[in-house]
Amino acid sequence: MNKIVVNVSGWFHADPDKIMFQLISDMDESKYITGTEWLELPLEGDKNNPGRADYVIESVGKAMETALDGEYDYVDIEIE
User: What is the pTM of this model?
Assistant: First the structure.
């Protein structure tokens, strides 16, 4: 079966109220926060209070859909 590989380079301005982050430091808990909440956290947290480094963007695709502005510098599609 063929695979489609999409190589993308670019940027976008995310709306802090619409972008979501998922806690990854405690895999037993699926905790999500908005970008607004994420911006209020310290960079590094501790066991009781996670920081920004303990979260990842839930979905870059979803974040791009709600972007305030952005640009693709490069998009290439390959077949493997």
Answer: 0.80
